[in-house]
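step=encode ok
step=design start
structure_in=
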């Protein structure tokens, strides 16, 4: 069958350690995209104390057709002002040295949640100034002043995912814009030339090889430093279907192309996600 799940997507059953960490996050009322988006790497990452915390609540105001995160039904959403503090406390208890912060998209907020990102970074660094923080931000509807709030908080890495090729945006990301996402990455680098930027492409959505190559070239020409490419998996039968399971050879071909284009780091493989091995990648960059 064309859409039969390949054997390399076999997942470990969460053991007692992983279940305990999931319970701890629940008790602290802290969300992770790992759980919300049903990441295939959850068990292995949680076992190694690698989390991607999701701020601004658990409900997104966008309706992207590939995403498993809960989508807003129009109900007024409340911003939990204490959320950054709870995340910083988890960082302290678990003695985390590298933290990834992402969020739902909150188009209902005037700043898109930018100040919440900044506050989260600040509180984490108050625990230990040497903690490395990667942020995976929404597009802030293209508002550059809101982007600046996050850049000024001086994250170690600023990521914003292009997600897919330009042709598929209308289908997959109807409330987003390919040009806006590209511009966000470029403007972040203009604000701070030393800032490491990062983006991610999902494969298997019906894109062509030429379209993937064009997107990679576009990201690099807009000063994106790190690229990840991974296989799309539909969260449910109500989401956009998988059109293709990309071969291991094709993933390797894209990885090699990424380095030829000048990316400082490229992760490319079926189970790769935007924050996959984020700490290891940052460590490699520090030694370049």
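sequence_out=
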């Amino acid at each position: 069958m064309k859409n039969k799940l390949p054997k390399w997507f076999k997942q470990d059953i969460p053991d007692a350690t992983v279940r305990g960490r999931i319970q701890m996050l629940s008790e602290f009322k802290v969300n992770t995209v790992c759980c919300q988006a049903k990441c295939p790497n959850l068990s292995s990452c949680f076992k190694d104390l690698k989390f991607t915390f999701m701020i601004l609540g658990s409900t997104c105001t966008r309706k992207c057709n590939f995403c498993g995160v809960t989508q807003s039904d129009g109900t007024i959403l409340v911003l939990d002002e204490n959320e950054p503090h709870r995340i910083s406390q988890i960082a302290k208890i678990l003695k985390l040295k590298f933290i990834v912060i992402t969020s739902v998209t909150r188009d209902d907020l005037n700043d898109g949640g930018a100040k919440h990102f900044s506050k989260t970074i600040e509180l984490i660094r108050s625990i230990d100034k040497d903690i490395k923080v990667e942020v995976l931000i929404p597009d802030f509807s293209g508002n550059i002043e809101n982007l600046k709030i996050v850049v000024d908080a001086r994250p170690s890495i600023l990521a914003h995912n292009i997600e897919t090729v330009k042709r598929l945006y209308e289908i997959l990301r109807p409330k987003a814009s390919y040009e806006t996402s590209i511009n966000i990455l470029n403007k972040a680098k203009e604000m701070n030339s030393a800032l490491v930027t990062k983006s991610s492409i999902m494969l298997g959505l019906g894109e062509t090889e030429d379209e993937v190559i064009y997107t990679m070239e576009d990201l690099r020409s807009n000063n994106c430093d790190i690229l990840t490419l991974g296989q799309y998996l539909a969260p449910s039968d109500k989401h956009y279907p998988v059109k293709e399971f990309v071969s291991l050879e094709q993933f390797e071909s894209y990885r090699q192309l990424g380095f030829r284009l000048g990316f400082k780091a490229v992760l490319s493989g079926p189970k790769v996600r935007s924050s996959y091995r984020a700490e290891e990648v940052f460590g490699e960059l520090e030694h370049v």
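step=design ok
step=annotate ok -> The chain is about 40% helix and 15% strand.
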